[in-house]
Records
---
Amino acid sequence: MAEKRFAGLTYEQTVIKYKKAVGSLCLVRLKNYADAEDCFQNVFARLYTKSPDFTDENHLKAWLIRVAINECKNFLRDNTPLLPLKDVEANSVNFPENECDISWALLKLEPKYRNVLYLHYIERYKIDEIAEILGKKPNTIKTILRRGREKLKAIYGGDER
């Protein structure tokens, strides 16, 4: 039986190559390691069972990110938290608060800003690519990005460093 391939990569190579991107996105969305692990596993299980055809690795990565966002959205919809999220400390995820890592500040943002900023600055997607992944217009993404930067600046401390 032939081994499944995704944009030329084996399943194992795909998991190794994209585990950080998918895992980080799930963690930023869910703010909880255990829940993020569950969604992470669901994303790669879906990849294996659905076995979609990809034109190239960019298509594969975009598909994984879209599925991860949907998995997290479904998880949040189906699992009402025992405490309101506003009562949970964003730093309970244990991201370091230092100059090199702004993940802790992203966790304090609303999901719509968090997703766009994460995809733009962490995953290095362009505005048009983010618009396609999230199913929004590029101008909407630009607005969310601008407003998100303002909110992030207020949280992170601005230009005072």
---
Amino acid sequence: MAKVLFLIAQEGFQTKEYHDPKRVLEGAGHTVLTASMDGETATSNTGEKTPVDLALHEVHAENYDAVFAIGGPGAPKFLDNDETARIMKEAEARPGMPYGAICFSSRILAKAGVLNGKRATGWDGDGRLAEIFEEYGVRYERLPVVTDGRVVTADGPASAEEFGNTIARLL
């Protein structure tokens, strides 16, 4: 079965966006590992402490079968960085490797250039997603989950389980 990596914020990752897809993927027999900026323990938007397997600087996409960035209020501070961009560019460069993001993290992937020319969705609570996606060459689709080839994006917590099921089907 596949080895999937989730990138989460050190503080403020969205708990449902993390746990629902993880439960779905592990239920399908896949292994889910977690990386954050510093590794060790991450704290969710609800204050839950979650063990982390490795720090972002330790991640090399070739060691995984898929890589996905989880959203939440901490994503802009802890995932919008050069390490996340490097990891996602490595994933994009690997033929056939599924990658993507949920919620706010779709914006981070757009900025990193790995959604250019793709159809995608994400969090649009501030009404700016269409503008951001246009700036980075991404075609915005106002749907809960969007798949474009091997890229999977989702709009937020309500779509977290469907996000996990979509990833599981790709694997």
---
Amino acid sequence: MRYKAVLSYDGTRYHGFQIQKNALGIQGVVERAFRLMTQSVIRIHAAGRTDKGVHAKGQVFHFDSDLDLTLENWMRVNDRLPLDIRVLSIKKTKPDFHSRHDSKSKKYRYVIAKNPSSAFDANYEVYVRGLDINPIKEALPYFIGTHNFRGFCQLVKGKSTIKTIYAIDLKETKKHYILTFHGNSFLKYMVRSMVGTLIEIGLGRMEPMMIKTILETQDRQLAGKTAESRGLYLQKIYY
């Protein structure tokens, strides 16, 4: 039987989602919890790998098991997980469902604080002194559409850098600027590189048109410094 699960986690103390040999990865923690619960080896397969320090509200993974457990009992895996990792739901799915291959699009969120972070907020937002949001608003439309994002990622051999951004929403609250990116899929460090470049624009170090130039030239050297991971959240995966 194949199952689809939705997972949330605080990525602060983890070295990314993927299982690690010499560091703590979220995948390894979840698989260990299943092993403790079921006394059997259960491998999980995620929709995507988040990097060190990145959080998730709606990561998705699938797993296979022949154990005769109710969905309620499967959810008891949370009893064996640390409090910064929570399984939100588990349900039966079709035998050929694949969390990564079947995903249609993803949403990521990046949180920028308007004021210096407190000790309780510092792991979940990024404060940038002297940021002007207006040139950032001007720059956002350049990302929309299908482009070669080679200039905004770390290259992974054999992986296409052609991606489609459907929408970017900028929401302003009393304390934050929240950027939400919706695209068909994302490359390694892509959102953080985009945000890092937007921050440079918001600090007056680049013009908004630079986004267009980087997309056209695919020159990674022109992009801003990759934004810090703690402000990034994998928000939702659509199927």
